[in-house]
Amino acid sequence: MTVLLISSSPNLEGSNSRALAQNLADSLAGNAPIVMRDLGANPPPHLDQATIGAFYTPEADRTAEQTQKLALSDELIDEVFAADAIVIAAPMHNFGIASSLKAWIDQVARIGRTFEPTGQGPKGLVADRPVYVVTTRGGVYGPGTPFNHLDHLEPYLRRALNFIGLENISFIYAEGTAKGDDGIKAAQAEIAQVAQAA
To answer: How far apart are CA 81 and CA 47, in angstroms?
Structure first.
């Protein structure tokens, strides 16, 4: 079993999302390898016109420059395909995901590699596998809470992952981290349960 661990917090030290997601990845992997993709330390570039053009150019027609433009996208996509399980550390930033995680999605959601158009709409090309999203929030925005309507992180991330074929997605919430460590403890307990059941 190979676990892909994606961290998106720009906080490289003392990040709750990093620590919780690492705990989960370690528990899931056991002695198996963990592939670490640290988007906080090394954020993928935002898409530019040349990269988008390369996405839509058939492989046989690509220039050397276009092939180079796609090198990181290919690497990120290969990591997804090679993983048996994916753990994403996704702190909430301004009610959504960190910009580095959005850039990762833009590099991975790629026509002909992770999705293809059909007469019935786009079809994801990534075989489904478990995805665990560990999300930390300073406030309380989870399902059933008064401010859940402000949570744009979960619905967007769920839809973006569904788009490429990933449907088996679980969210683990560490809520209210600005007010104390109760949310962290609750997330730790849920991680222990998830790891035991996996």
So the answer is: 21
- In whole angstroms, give the CA distance from residue 39 to residue 41: 6
The helix-helix angle for 71-82 and 99-108 (nearest 10°) equals 90
For the chain, helix (H) and strand (E) counts, in that order, are 7, 7
Q: Give me the phi and psi of 4, to 5 degrees please.
A: -95, 120
Tokens representing residue 33 in the block:
């390898």
Condensed to tens digits (0 to 9), the pLDDT of residues 15-67 reads 999 999 999 999 999 989 999 999 999 999 999 999 999 999 999 999 999 99
3-state secondary structure 95-146: CECCHHHHHHHHHHCCECCCEECCCCCCEECCCCCCEEEEEECCCCCCCCCC
Q: CA nearest 25: which of 78, 81, 73, 84?
A: 84
Query: Are 32 and 3 spatial neighbours (Cβ–Cβ below 8 Å)?
Result: yes
Tokens of 161: 């992952």
Say how far apart CA 183 and CA 16 lie, in whole Å: 10
Q: How far apart are CA 143 and CA 145, in angstroms?
A: 6
